[in-house]
Specification:
about 130 residues; mainly alpha; 2 strands; about 60% helix; about 5% strand
Length: about 130
């Protein structure tokens, strides 16, 4: 017998929804950008340009919002779509929340401690995010 269809809270986003897929694609683009730009910034001491500063804020804002969005995104467990807010929160608390929070916290603290408030050092924490994607 097939599992019963998942009941969806109006606040929960299905993991395969068009919106979530676009969100995840945007995250992949930002990770790719960081993979290229972090080594370049560190190796060549690039001066903060308006473009680099804008990308820093876009990325930091995206990942900060993603931390909260994950609490409202369903997941699959053994082929069954889970859309319960309680189960989503418990799973996130037990898996990636500490990691995500630490990476974002490092970015924010480094930015606040930086004299120039630029993207150079604060972006180091994002390189760790590759571990989550793999």
């Amino acid at each position: 017998a097939a599992p019963p269809p998942a009941t969806k809270s109006r606040y929960v986003l299905r993991p395969s929804s068009r919106c979530r897929i676009w969100w995840d694609l945007a995250g992949m683009v930002l990770i790719t950008y960081d993979l290229i730009m972090i080594p370049m910034t560190l190796a060549f001491s690039l001066e903060p340009t308006p473009f680099l500063q804008t990308m820093f804020w876009v990325s930091l804002s995206f990942w900060s919002l993603d931390l909260f969005a994950t609490f409202f995104t369903g997941y699959y467990h053994k082929g069954t779509e889970i859309l319960s807010l309680k189960k989503i929160a418990i799973r996130y608390l037990r898996t990636w929340l500490a990691f995500d929070f630490f990476v974002i916290l490092v970015d924010w603290v480094t930015w606040m401690a930086s004299g120039e408030r630029g993207p150079a050092l604060a972006r180091l924490g994002k390189t760790i995010r590759i571990v989550r994607v793999a």
